[in-house]
Each structure stands twice: as C-alpha cells, then as structure tokens.
Amino acid sequence: MKLKKTIISILIVVMLLSVAGCSGSTKKPKNQLDGTFRTGSQGLVLKFVTGAPPPEVYEGDRMDASIEYVNKGAFDVTSGYIYLGGYDKNYLHFDRDMYSGISAKGKDEFNPDGNLINTATFSLGSVNMPDNADIFPQTIKATACYKYRTYAIGKACIDPDPYGIGYAEKVCAMGPPQISGSQGAPVAVTSVEAQTSRNRVQFKVNVGNVGGGTVIDNAAPITDCDSKLDRTQIDKIDIRAKFSDNEMKCEPSTIRLTGGNGFAICHWEGDLGREAYETLLNIELDYGYRSSISADVKIRRLPGKYTYG
User: Fold this and answer.
1) pLDDT beyond 70 at 209
2) 19 in any annotated domain
3) Residue 95 DSSP code
C-alpha cells in the first residue's frame, strides 16, 4: 500500500512538470500581449555587410557594396530608395547607384524587434585609381529615402467643466494626455498639453525629429532625395488628430520643425456633454525620411605597378 502511494505521488509530480513545461513553451513574450512593440525612435536602419566594401582593396580587384536594411519602426516601408554615393565616379563604376522599390515590414506583434533583414548590393567589376597615386582613399555612402508614419495614441480626459464641482466624483481630471515617449518611428509626439471648456477641446501637440536623420516634406518626392532636396522640402510634417471619433482641426496642418522640434494646435468645437469622461486621443504624423551610413575604403596600387602621365 505504501509503495502504491509512492508511485501515485511520483506520477502526479511528473504530470505537473509536464504541464508546466508545456505552458512555458506556449507563453508569448510580454510585448506581443500588450502591444508594446510600438516603441523606439528608428525607422529604416542601414548597415554595410562586413567586407562589402572591404577596408582595403587593390587596383583591378572586384568590389561590392552590400547594404543590409531592416525596419526598426512600426510602419511598413513600401516604396523606398537606397542611393550609393560619396565616391569619385570617374574611377569607381558600380553597376548602379540607386535601388528603387525598397520595401521592409515594420515591427508588429509577430516581429516585435524588427529583425527582418533585406539586402541591396551594388557591384563594381574592376577598381580603378588615379595615375601616380599609391593609395586612393574613398568614402562609400549609402542613403535611404522613404515615406513613414507615426501613430501616437494616448488616454485623454475630456472635462466640459474642469473647474466646476457639480459632480461629487469625476472619473478623471484634466491633464496632459498619457502618450509614451516613443512611438516606434523617427518622428515622435514628444508631449501634449490639453485644455477644454464647455464647447471646445484643444490640444497642443509637440513633435520632434528623434531619429537622427532628415525629415522630408510629405508632399515632396523622395526620388533623388540624396542630393536634390532644397530647404523648402525638409523639416515638414503633416498632422491629423481625433478624439472619441471626432476629427479635429490642426493649425498648422503641416508642422515646420525648427531645431528639430515643432508643434500644432488641434481643436474641436461642439457639445462635449455634461460630465468628464476618458477617451483616446489619436495622432498621425506623415512625412518622408532620409538617413545615411558611410564606410571608408583604401584603394592600393599593386607593388611595382606605376602609371606616369
């Protein structure tokens, strides 16, 4: 009888361990459950593949410039460009200087870290260099240009009578809407200030370029944005906002950044009801974006090979 009880106890322990193991294997990461993948301050991120280009190469050798690009933000890139430049095109003749139609899926609940890697390769059949030079230093620059969008969603308190005491208990108090410090994009809503009255709600939306690149006017083309943009086509962001399904009027509707920062006043006028309530404030920012990386290459002449003019 005692042996039988011992065997039963062992079986129960084994069953419990098996259940624990199965439940652990199916558990999802926290950021897949609560939507926190929409964080960070990056969009399309570029990186040269190791050895392409190499740090040194000899005249006459073949050379590739291969760029890995991954979307670390939370909006899909569907038709971007990668340009190659920075080098002397009289001596280095790559098979192309632009890749069009670049696409990269953004972060989501299935790809919360943005780790889907794509590659663009530029090939050079034979490296050349100037006469009478033993070393020819060059810089290879890769520039990405693409359209992007920032979604910022926060909890807001709408109180038609913020200073009144008609209701003994309010469900919320007026204050800055709760929006996270980053929204998974290189342009972010940095803070929001709220103000309401009986028939009007108003938000001052502050935005900033947090990605380290250049913001491009959403109305400007991103083709040739590596070299042909002018001052009127940069540092501009289109903004839209709504709360409780009410479209707001934002002034200006296109924000101009100064020193990387700007703002718009978004307001709505109408019947806000009689008492305070909580709702969601939705803000969308549309823009183009440009970012670059570079790599240095030393082109060396083969020993004993000289060309004199």
Assistant:
1) yes
2) no
3) S
